[in-house]
Structures are given as structure tokens and as C-alpha cells.
Amino acid sequence: MPESKAVPIHPARNVLGSLRVPGDKSISHRYAMLATLAEGPSRLHNFSLGADCASTLGCVQALGAKVERDEQGRLTIEGLGPRLKAPAVPLDCGNSGSTMRMLAGIVAGQSFASEMLGDESLSRRPMKRIIEPLTQMGAEIRATQDGCAPLHITGGKLHGIEYRPLVASAQVKSCLLFAGLLAEGVTTVEEPMRTRDHGELALRAFGVKVERKQAGVSIQGGQQLHPLEVTIPGDISSAAFFLCAASIFPESNLVIDGVSLNPTRSALLDVLAAMGCRISMLRVEEQHGELVGTISLVPGKGPHLVIAGAQTAALVDELPVLAAIAPYTAGGLEVRDAGELRVKESDRLAVVTQNLLAMGAQVEQTADGWRIPGVQKLHGAEINSFGDHRIAMAFAIAALRAEGDTLIRNPECVAISYPNFFQDLEQVVER
Ligand code: S3P
């Protein structure tokens, strides 16, 4: 691979300063999709700049929405109401599981057929989790024999169902709520474990009534959405890389402004606190149901941690970076019940293990997690990101405390969620 396709990361002395991270990816996808179903123009400030959300924008444009971005980065989406236009081209979801799974719920409720495509990684990811319930609701869906993309969806008249997904997945929940919005009757999704609630909050922000009863979320079909003007909070899963970086330098002090503090997304803060960090949340406010504020972190030393069950589900995107810094922690880390990581953009359990081993770490990969002892010394290495944005960023963080330089291969994949990641990292790193 040519040298330009690798980014060197030099060891750091400290992590210091303040930063804003780009708009939340999960919220951006949902607002863009719902803005398409609202009649009239919605204005979305601080929309995610990542390639995944650009895939969603490309798809909603193909479905007839008008999308414009002005010089201030403000996005306007002119929605069509619930009836979209038949796309003249396949809906290209790129690398984005969120685009494919959530938009499938909307496409399934339309009176036309569409095809949804993904890149190589997305074409390997499981889609039966949405195909089965959408089929129960009345859609006709063809996929590969393994239940993967491309998906051929013939939409039609959907009817509400009560559904309990086998996996805890916010994408599946949102998919079914969006389909439920276009269906006749009531759709209820009963979660096996609590997942992020951005879908429910976004629906409410657009004027839709959604009810939560214990583990179940219900929506009555046929409700109208009104357009919205809203600022999207910073992505806490992007902030996670810097927070974890700060947690491994004893003299660090980091402030992240305007970041999402949604309780279904901020489990990382509990973990870092359990690792001994002092975390404060300042200027917390609610914006259209979403909590936003400033996080400040000063590191400390904590005990051995075990992450399992519901906590694993709540940390699904933060586990790679937590594992990448675990060797530097005082107590080490064990992660259980994380089998879902095997079907992300890469097999994250295997890829994190491989890269930790390359850096000289001691790590044991289990069927559904890792055991990683603390107080280890790592050395710089060549990191294979396998084109997975969270792997590239996680190991850029691990590299900061390694001895010698690290080379991150295929670094351009960070653009999936965080195009300016390497530049922002340099802003808060002291050498
Ligand atoms: C997401 C949910 C999670 C997460 C993904 C974004 C969402 O996926 O890993 O990055 O926005 O709903 P699953 O629904 O597959 O757990």
C-alpha cells in the first residue's frame, strides 16, 4: 500500500485543552430520514459531516427530498410528506448499516419497489433482523441467501405488529418505528435490552406521539410530521476517543463542549468514572428531547472492570477504544456479551485483538469479548484498520502511550464518522 495511505502517530506526553466534536451520527441519520417524511423544509444545524450520513442524504435525495447545505454548514431538507418518489437508481447506503436498516423501514412503507446496496463490508452484515419483522408487517423483501444486501424491497400497505427483536439493536427499533409510522394500526417493539432512544426522541421532535411502557415502544400509524429547525449535539461516540486518550495520561485535563449527554449513549462516562476519572458535566440543557452539555475529565486510577450484559449493549460503539486503552489502565478490563461486535464494519473482537497483539499487548479474545490485563507497556506497530473507522481511531489513541511510532493503515476510513479526526487529535495532544 502506498505510504500516503498511512498516518503516523507519535507518542504523546499529555492530552490537554478543549474541543468540539462533529454532530452526532445516529441523530443526524434519523433527523434526515424524518425530515424527508415531514412536509416542508427542516433546517438541521451541525449535521454530521461523515460519509455515513452523506449516504443517508444521497438516498433521501433519490427518494425525492431536496437537500441543500449553506456556507454555515446548515442543512435544509425539503420533505415530501409520507409518500416518497420511486427512486430511479438503487439506494446506495455505502458503508452505513444505519442507513440501510433504518431507511428500509421507510422504503417498506412506500407503494413502489426499490433496491438497497452497500459496500463490501455492509454487504456482509446481517439484515435478517429487519427483513423478518418488515415481512411480517407486509413488505416483500429479497436478499442474498445469507440474508445480506443487496435488498430488493417491494413496499406496500403495512400493518402494525408486536415484535421482540432477538438482538438489542437501536437500528432495528428505529426501522420498525419508522415502518410503524407508515403502517395501519399500532406497532410495538419490545427491546431485549435498552438501546439508544434517538429514534423515539426524533419522532417526538417531529411531532409524532410515541409511547414507552417498560421495555416496549409503540407508535400509531398515520401520524403527520411537521418540519423542524434543530442543532444536532456533538457525537459522544466521537468524543469517546479523546476522553479515553485523556484517561491514560496522569496529568491530562480535557473539556468537550456541546456534546450529546443522552443517558442511553453516555455509559462511557460511568465506565471512565469507575476507572477512577473525575468527570463533570456542565451547562447541561435539553434540545428537542436530547440532553447536551460540556464534559470535563481529569484522570485517576481505578480497579479491574468487568463490562457485561446491558452495559455492553449501551457501549457498543465505545468498546473498541476502551479495549485499546485497557492495557494502560491500572486494573485492566474484561468485556462479556459483546458478540455483536463481530458483525460491525469489521469483526471488531478479532481486529482489536490482532492490533493489540501487534503492539505487544497481552490480550485474550473470548467468544464474546476480551480479557485484557492492566499496567502493560505497548510498542508502536503497523495497525490494520480493516477499513473500519472506529478501529483506526481507537488505535491512534492507543498509539499515544506506546513506545515508538505507530502507523495507521487505511486511515481515510475515519471519514465514515469523523473526517477531521487526526487534525482534532493534534489539537489536544502535547508532545
Ligand atoms: C446505531 C446503533 C448501533 C451502533 C451504530 C449506530 C444507531 O448499531 O453500533 O453505530 O444509530 O442506531 P446496532 O443497532 O446494530 O446495535
Quickly describe the structure.
With 431 residues, the protein is an alpha/beta fold. It has helices spanning 25-37, 51-62, 97-107, 128-137, 170-181, 198-205, 236-247, 267-274, 309-314, 319-325, 348-358, 389-399, 421-428, and strands at residues 6-9, 14-20, 39-45, 66-69, 75-80, 91-92, 113-117, 140-142, 151-154, 162-163, 186-190, 210-213, 216-220, 229-231, 253-260, 278-287, 290-298, 305-307, 333-335, 364-366, 369-372, 382-384, 406-409, 429-430. A hairpin with a 2-residue loop joins strand 16 and strand 17.
SSE layout and pairings?
Blueprint: E1 6-9, E2 14-20, H1 25-37, E3 39-45, H2 51-62, E4 66-69, E5 75-80, E6 91-92, H3 97-107, E7 113-117, H4 128-137, E8 140-142, E9 151-154, E10 162-163, H5 170-181, E11 186-190, H6 198-205, E12 210-213, E13 216-220, E14 229-231, H7 236-247, E15 253-260, H8 267-274, E16 278-287, E17 290-298, E18 305-307, H9 309-314, H10 319-325, E19 333-335, H11 348-358, E20 364-366, E21 369-372, E22 382-384, H12 389-399, E23 406-409, H13 421-428, E24 429-430
Parallel strand pairs: 2-15, 3-14, 6-7, 10-11, 18-19, 22-23
Antiparallel strand pairs: 1-23, 2-24, 3-5, 4-5, 7-9, 8-9, 11-13, 12-13, 15-17, 16-17, 19-21, 20-21
Residues 26, 98, 169-171, 174, 196, 316-317 line the site of shikimate-3-phosphate.
